[in-house]
Design brief:
The complex is a heterodimer. Chain A is an all-alpha fold. Chain A folds into 3 domains: about 240 residues, no CATH class; about 230 residues, no CATH class; about 110 residues, no CATH class. Helix content of chain A is about 75%, strand content about 0%. Chain A is built from 30 helices and 4 strands. In chain A, the strands form 2 sheets. A two-stranded parallel ribbon of chain A has the order 1-2. A two-stranded antiparallel sheet of chain A has the order 3-4. In chain A, helix 13 crosses helix 25. About 5% of the residues of chain A have low confidence. Chain B is built from 11 helices and 4 strands. Chain B has a two-stranded antiparallel sheet. In chain B, strands 2-3 form a two-stranded antiparallel ribbon. In chain B, strand 2 and strand 3 form a beta hairpin. Chain B is globular and about 60 Å long. The chains are: A mainly alpha, B mainly alpha.
Amino acid sequence: MSIANTLVPARDTRALLIKWIVGLLVPIAVFTFVWSGEAIINNALLSLLGTGNVALGISLFIQLAIFILILYATVIALAGYLVAADSGQRGMIALWIDILVFVLVPLLLVITQGLIIGLALCAIVWPLFFLVRRRFAKALHYTPPQPLQNLQILDAEQRAELMSRGIMGGFWFSVALAVVWLVADLIFYITGTLPTILLILAVIRTLILPVAGYFLGRLGGVIALRRTLAQKDNGNGESSTDRAGRRISKRRQLQELSTSHKREEARDLVPNDLPLRSTGAQRFYLILIVAFILFYPVIDPFLFSFGTDGRLAGYGDAGYYVILALGLNIVVGFAGLLDLGYVAFFAIGSYAWGIIGSTQLTNLLSLPPINPHLLSALFWPMIIGAALIAAFFGVLLGLPTLRLRGDYLAIVTLGFGEIVPIVFLELDKYTNGANGIVGVYSPAFPGANWLSATPYYYLILGLIVLTIFVNIRLRDSRLGRAWIAIREDEIAAASSGINLRNTKLLAFGAGAFFSGIAGAYHAAKLGGVSPDNFSLGDSIIFLAMVVIGGIGSIPGVIVGALAVYSINLFLLAQLDTLAADPSNPLFAVHNAIASVFPGFTFGNIRNLIFGVLLVVIMIFRPEGLIPSARRRRELHAAADEQVEVGALDVVPGAPGFEDEVRI
Amino acid sequence: MTLFLQELVNGITTGAIYALIALGYTMVYGIIELLNFAHGDIFMIGTFVCVSIFAAFGITLSSSPPTGLALVGVLLVTLLGSMAVCAVLGVVIERFAYRPLRNAPRLAPLISAIGVSLILEDVAKLWKGINFITVPQIFPQIFYHIGPITISSINILVIVVAVVLMIALQWLVTRTRTGRAMRAVAQDREAAALMGVNVNRIIAITFFIGAGLAGAAGLIWDLQYGTTIFYLGFTLGLFAFTAAVLGGIGNIVGAMLGGVLIGVIEALATLIPDSNNGGIGLPHGGAPWHEAIIFIVLILILVFRPSGLLGQRTPEKV
C-alpha cells in the first residue's frame, strides 16, 4: 500500500476529518493570527537571522522556537489521535459547539481581557452554557447515546484502519493548516507587513508541514492504538501477552459495572464517544499546559504586551497559595482533621527565613553581620529548615489534639492559629512587632536576577512541582492510605492496626512542612515579613481553596487554590481600579450603585461577592470543582450499590424508597 | 484583691453576652453538627437593628433619653424587634444556605457558613458604613458601691436579661414538646423523623431561637458598650464559639458556663503586669495577650476534658 493510497480517506473517515480539521483549525488559526502565534514565530526567526530585534538574543530564540514546535506538533498529533479515536457517534455540530464554548470563547476572552479576568469570565460563561444545554436537552427530549455500544476487541484489520485514520488526521490537518497559513502570509506580504525573507521561510514551512503531519498523525494513531482492546491471539494462546489478558478481563469487569463506572472506565478505550475527554487526549492537553507554563515568562510579552513583570509576580503569589492549599489538603483532605489555624505554620515558616535571612538574628545575638552573599545562599538549606521548623510546630499542635474529635479539634487549631500571630506581634524584642521584619534577602542563584519576577516564577514553579510530586507519592504510600482510613473511620482504622497517634501527628507535620516552604518563599519574595498577613481570615481562605477544589483531590485543590486566588485576591481586589476607567462597563455599574448608596466602592462589597460565590459554589458543587474519584465513590457508594429488594420494607418505586435505600 | 473582684464583675457581664451568643452556636451544632460561622454576624446585625429602632423612636445621640414607662416600652420593643429580625434572618439563612447542603459532605456547609458571614458583614457595611457607630445611651447609668467594688445599673440589667432568657430557653428545651423534638432530632435525625417529628421544621425553629438570642445579645451589647461596628460579629463570634466548645458543644448549660468563664478570663488577663517594666508578666501587659490566654486555657481544658467542661463523653458509635 503506497503512501498516496493511505492518504485517500474513505467515506466515513471523510466526515470525521472534516469534523476535526474544522474543529481544531479554527482555534489554532485564532491563536496564530488574532493573537500572537505569528508574532512569536516571526520574532523568533528574525532574531535568529539577526535582522530583527537583536537585543532579544539567541536564548530567547531557542526558548520561543521550542515552545512553538511543541505547540504545533502537539496539536497536529492531537488531530491524528482524535480522528483515530473518535467513534463518530456524536455529531459534528455538537462537537463544534463544544469547541467553540470550551476553546474558542476562553481564547478570545483571554486575548481581550487578560489571562486571569478572561478565565474568571469563562467560569461565568461555562455554567450558563451547561444550564442552557440542559434546558435544551430536556425540551428536545434528548437522550445521550448509550456509552460503549461499540466497545469491542479490535482485530488486526480494524487496528490498521485506526492507524490509517490517525495518519490521515494528522496529514490533512497539517495540509489545511499550511494552506491557510500560506494564504494569510501572502496577504500579509502583499499588504507589506511581512518581510520577503519570512515569505521564503513560509514557503519552506508549507512544504515541511504536511510531511511532519504525516509522522505526527502516525504518532497520534499509535497513542490511540495503545488504548484499544487488543484481540487475544488465539493461534498461539501462550504468546498472548499478559497485557491482552488483562484487557479482556477488564472488559468483563466493565460489563458488570454500573453505567457511571462504565462511562468513567470507558474514557480509556478506543473507539470512544467522547474523544476530547479521553485520557489519551488529556495527555496532549498536559503537554500543552506544561509547555505554556514552562515558557510563559518568554511568551508573555508577545501575548499581553507590556507589564510582564507585574503579571509574573502575581502568578508567583498564586503559586504559594497552591502550595499552602496542597499542604492543608494533607491534613484536611487526606487525614480528615479539620484545621482552622493553618496560617500559623505559614507564619512560622515566614518568620523562620525572615529572622535568619535578614540582619535580625545577628543583631539580636550582637554578632557581626553575615556576608549578604552567604546569607542569600543560605536560602536553599533554610527553605528546608523553615519547613522542618513548621513541621515541628505542626506535631506540637497535634499533641494536645489527639484525643479530640471533629469540631473540638477545629477550635483548638483555630486557637493555635490565633496564638501564633499574637506571639509574633507582642514579642517585639525579637520580631519587631507590628513593624515586621524588613530587609530579608532574596535567594542566590548563579545567573538569576532576583530583582525581576522571572526567577521567582521559576522558583515557585519548582516548589509546586516538588510539592505535587511529594503529595502524590504520599497519597499512594502506606502512610497516605492510613490517613484516608482514619478519615473514613477512626475506629476501624485503629482496629486494623493503624497507630492513630503517629499517623495523625505525621499528617499535622507533613501539612505544616509545606506551609513552611510557602512561608520561606513568601518572606524572600516580599523581602520582609509583616504580622498582618497571618489572620484567621487567611486560614479560612486556605480552607475554602481546599473545599472548593475538592477535598482530597490533588488536581482539584490546585484548581481551587488558583480559582480562589484569582477571584478573591486578584479580580475582586481590582474592581475599583477597573471601575475608575470610563471605558470599562463596570464604570456605569459603579455609578448606578453609587447613586443609591452614596460613597459606594467595590472594595466595600468585595466580600459580599466572594461570599455569594462561596455559597453558590457549595450549593451546586458540594463536593468541590474536581472531586477526588476515590471520595466520590465513597460518598455515592450507597447510591451505586445494588440493593437486595427482599431486604427492604418499601417496594422499589414506592414513595419513600429513596430514603430507605440511603439509610 | 479589689481589682480582682472588680474585673470579675466586668467579666461576668461580658461573659453573659458571650453566653447568649454561644447558645446559638451550641444549639445549631447540637442539632446539625454545623459550625455556624455566620452566627456572630447575626449578632452584629442585631446591634445594628437596635440602633435603627432607637432612631425610629427619635432617640439619637443628641436627644434626651426617655424615662419611666416610656423607657421600659422602648427597651421591650427594641428587644423584641431585634430578636425578631435576627430570628427571621437565621431562618432565611438556614433555608437558603444550609438546607440544600443537608446531605453534602461535612465541610460544604462550613464553607457556605463562611460565605454567609462575609455577605452579612458587607451588607452591614453598605447599611451603616464602615466606621464605628455610637449607640445613644438610653438606660440611666447608676453606680452601686458594694464594699470596694462598683456595679452599674447596666451591668445588672445585662445579667438579668441574660439569665431570664437562659432560663426561658432551658424551660423550652426541657419542658415543651418542641424542645423534646429538638433533643430527639439532635440525638438521631432519622429516628426522630420516623417518630413523626418534622425534622426540617425543628431545625428551622432551632435557628429561629438561636438567632433570636443573638438579637437579644445585640441589644444588651449596645446598652453595655454603646458602640458597634460591622466586624464586631467576627471577634465576638469567635469567643462565643470558644465558649460553646469550652462548656461542651451541644450542651446549653455548658455554653452559659463557658461564656461566663471566657468573659472572666478576658477581664482577669488585663491584670497581668507588663514584663517590659521588669518583673514577671508578659511583654506589653496582659491585655494584648487576652485572646492567646483564652485559647491556651481552652487547649489545656480540652486536653484533660476532651468533650468540654460539661460535655458528656458519648460512647462512640461503631
